[in-house]
UniProtKB/TrEMBL annotation, chains A, B:
This is DUF1445 domain-containing protein. It comes from the Eukaryota. SUPFAM superfamilies: PSTPO5379-like. The keyword rRNA processing does not apply.
Amino acid sequence: MAPIAVTHVVEAAKPSKTTGNRKSAVEETGESIRLAARAGEYTDQTSGVAPTYVQANLIVLPSQYASDFRLLCRRNPVPCPLLAESKEVGRWDQLQSWIQGVTGDQITKDLDIRNDISKYMVYENGNLTKSHCHNVEAEWTEDHVGFLIGCSYSFETALTAAGLLPAHTAHGRNVPMYRTKIPLCPAGVFQHSTYVVSMRPYRRRDIEKVRGITRPYVATHGEPIDWGWDAVERLGIQDLSRPEYGEAPIATDGSPLVRGMGIEDDELVPVFWGCGVTPQEAIRRAKPEGTVIGHAPGHMLVLDIRDWDIIPKQEEIPI
Amino acid sequence: MAPIAVTHVVEAAKPSKTTGNRKSAVEETGESIRLAARAGEYTDQTSGVAPTYVQANLIVLPSQYASDFRLLCRRNPVPCPLLAESKEVGRWDQLQSWIQGVTGDQITKDLDIRNDISKYMVYENGNLTKSHCHNVEAEWTEDHVGFLIGCSYSFETALTAAGLLPAHTAHGRNVPMYRTKIPLCPAGVFQHSTYVVSMRPYRRRDIEKVRGITRPYVATHGEPIDWGWDAVERLGIQDLSRPEYGEAPIATDGSPLVRGMGIEDDELVPVFWGCGVTPQEAIRRAKPEGTVIGHAPGHMLVLDIRDWDIIPKQEEIPI
C-alpha cells in the first residue's frame, strides 16, 4: 500500500467532547456512567469519559471455555490483560480481581455486567447475531462467566496530561482499531487468532515520550507494539483509513485525518497498541458453542478503580 | 519452501542418552549437575539430564537494562517466562524468585551463576565475542544482574512419560531451534526482535495430546505456539534442516530426520514451542552497551526445584 500520513494533531489539552446525554462532566465517575448505562440514559462510546477511571473490555463465555480463555490472556497479556472475572460461574454482579492488591468489590461496588455497558455485541457459535444492543439480560445464563480486559483509554489521560492528547479524542471520535496478521499464542480452543490494535497518530520525535508514558500501564496494554509507516506493512494492515472497528481517522470538520504523502522525520506517524477487541476476534475464529457476549468496540465498562490503582510495583511481576 | 517431513519418531520411553562424563544417572540432581559443571567435569548439553529438575535459560545484563528486560519478559511470557533474577545487583550466588510460593533459596541452595552452566556465550555491545566458554568469572562484574528463564526441557519428562519421547532425546541430540519472523512485543531498548522456537516432530493425530500435556507448563513455554507444515511458512523459517541454534534433526545413525515429501494425515509434522534463546536474539538486536552473558543454547542451568513446583494453580494468575 502507498504510505499515508495523518494531517491533524492536537497536543494541547482540550475539554472533553460532547458525550451524549450525560448531565455534567464534574459528576462523572465509573459508577455514574454504569448506572446511567443501566438506566438506558447513557448510550455513547466512552473514550474520554470519566477521566482517570479505569475502563474495561468485556468477554462473557460459557463456563466450559473459561479455563482456555484465562490461559489465552495469560499467554497474550499485551492485547489481553486480564483484570477480573465473575466471582463465580453465573455471577453478573460480583468480581474476582486479578489485579494485585485490589479486591473485586473495589473494582466495582455496584455492578450489573448485563446492563452497565452502553452497547453490547452477541455471538452465537462464533457468529455475530446482535450488534450494539443495549443490554444482554436475555442472553446471560447461569452458565456464563464474564471477563474484564484492560483498555487503552486508561493511559489516554496520562498522554493528555503530558500534552499528547490523542487525535481521536480531540476530534470527538472513537479510536480506530485494526485487525493484524500478528498471531496470538494459542490456548486450548483459541487458535489461529491475531492481534487487534488501536492506532493514535503522533509526531515521530514524540514516540519515545509516548512509549515512556504508556509503558507503566501494563494492565491496559502498556507501551505500543509497533510504530511508524513500516509498521503498517509489518502488522498486515490493509488500509489505515478503513479500520475494522471504531471510527476512521476523520476530523470533526469532515476532513480526513489521513492522506497520501511521503514520510518525513518531522511528520506524524501511526502508533499501534494492543487492543482489548482482540478476544472478540479470537471468538470469531474459535467459534465456541453457545452464546458469547462482548462490549461494542469503544463502549467500555467504566470501573470504580483509578488509573493509578493498576500500575504494578516492580516487585509484583510473578510467573 | 518445499514441505519436508520428519522420518523418525520414537514413542516409547528409552534410557537417557550418554551425557559426557557424568558418573551415574541415579546420582543426577540439579545440584549435582551444577557442582559438576562448576568443577569443569560436566561439559555436555543438558537435554534429558536430571529428569524432573527444572532447567533454566540465563541472561546476564548490566543493571541499567534490568528494568526493560523484566518488562520484555512480562510482555512476552511464552518465549520469556521469567523464573528468577539476582537477589541484588551483582549477586551471582542468590536469587529472587518470581515463581509464586517458591523462594530463591529453594530454586538453588548452592549457586554460582558464573560457573554452574557447562557452556556460556558472551556478547560485547550486542556482538558475540565468546562462544561456548566454560565459565564467565572474568566477565561478571558488580553491576551485572542475572535472569533465569524457563526451559522447555521441563515438559519433556512429562511428554516421555506419556509415550511421546522427543525425537532429539531419542537420538541423543540437542533440540533444533529456529529464528522466526513473529515479533516480540517491544519493551524499552528491546525492540524489533522476534521469537526463537524449539521444534519437536510429532504425529498429527498426537498433537492435541501433546498440546494438553505441555499446556500446564506456563513457566516453561507451555503449549506449542504453532504446528504443522503450514506453520513453517507462518513462522518464516527458511530451512527446517538448518536450525540457527541446537542441532539439526539428524538421527544417531547419521540419517536425516527430515526429507522432502508430501503431507499425509498420518505423517509426522513439526511442532513449535516458544524458546528461551529468544532473549539472546533480543540482545543481538538491541545491542545494549557493555557485557551481556547467556548460556550456550542447550546448555542450561539445572535447578533444585522440580517440574511440579512451577505449575501454577488457577488462582495464581494475577496481572
